[in-house]
Amino acid sequence: MDDTMQQEPGTVDTTSDEEATAELAGRLRTIEALPLDQRAVAFGAVHDELRVALEGTDQGTDDADDSPGGR
User: What is the value of pTM for the model shown?
Assistant: First the structure.
């Protein structure tokens, strides 16, 4: 990891894009091996984590649209 990289305030994850992609791919492969009901819950958790990371918000915000398809 490059020690010269400045981290934005509030940023939690310091992995590179390649590391994050590999980690997500491995996690998705593990989820795909689960029984269907467990798989749905696990994919839902991944979805929520990715949404929070991409939106830069915490879960439980009042203006979040949790409906399928988003806003």
Answer: 0.53
